[in-house]
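pinging the channel bc i need a second pair of eyes. not urgent but kinda urgent?? the chain im working w is below, pasted from the shared doc
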Amino acid sequence: MTAHRGPAGTDPTELYRLRDGLYAADLLIAVVAELDLFSWLDRYEREHDDLARIEQVCGAHRLDPRAADVTITYLVARGLLARVGDRITPTRVAREHLVGGSPYDLRAYYASLRERPTCRELLAVLRSGRPAAWAGAGSAGAWSDRLASPEFAASITAAMDARGAYLGPVLAETLADLPARAVLDLGGGSGVYAAALVDRNPGLRADVFERPPVDDVARTLLAGRGYADRVGVVSGDMFAGLPGRYDIHLYSHVLHDWGTGEVRRLLANSAAALPAGGWVVVHDTHIDVERSGPLPVAEYSVLLMHSTPGKCWSVAELGEMFAETGFDYVDCRPTAADRTAVIGRRTDR
């Protein structure tokens, strides 16, 4: 299935990619200059006459498993590593240009940028697994804790609203065939996606589920845009349980902010609240089943690894978590700007 055309006259995909992939080059610098990963893999293969497993790479370099997964997926998507089952090996271009002893060795060229602050932050995340402050904001706390600040909440909500203005109508068109009467937009921020859904389907009832103070930001924005009587705002903590009067739960750019345990918990909460046959939709950038890309998604995953406990989840990982929490995997539909909608259906209870 091909992606739907967006509502604008031009395609902003490259602008999304520039922003979302901002930290990927710094990760490569850290991998080359600090870990010298490609030289290590080449040496391991010569000494053991075998390829290294990912767990061995983590052990040798003291890497956090989540951060290592994001890094290896990015390097595979970049064409510098190849997966062979649960093992990895440098590609030809990596052996010729990023391995010690090659006449075309570029490691010193990359090392000249190793003092960039983001390189140091990414190395710390690789080693500890703990995300750095949002956008490298000094000693500021985790992004999720900072949402308690009205100023930060307004800023991040405005950012997500700007992203959704183009993506929302395409998502609504992509989901138009799902039979539903009421949708709960979880972590829906400004309500930009809920508004797009009711625009496409005027008979649909939509509510945004947000915690304070983002809930008040959403109410203000929706009222100012004329949606106060069409899109409601429900205040609450999505980790604590969800209301049960909806037949679709939408997570748009939400699950990528959380680790495995939190994602399972959210999906389990949705399964408990939805009726049999109800739908869950995860709208986001997703890694493919082979964990080889797409490259723009793998680059965005680096940003998420840096600043949140999450990453870009693969379609296979979501399918497994669907099954564990009470959903059947239904489909993965492309939308716009490298996004896809992964759809699950609540199994009979």
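so Strands lie at 52-53, 81-84, 87-90, 182-186, 205-210, 231-235, 248-252, 279-284, 327-334, 340-346. and The chain has a mean pLDDT of 93. — does that match what u expected or am i reading it wrong
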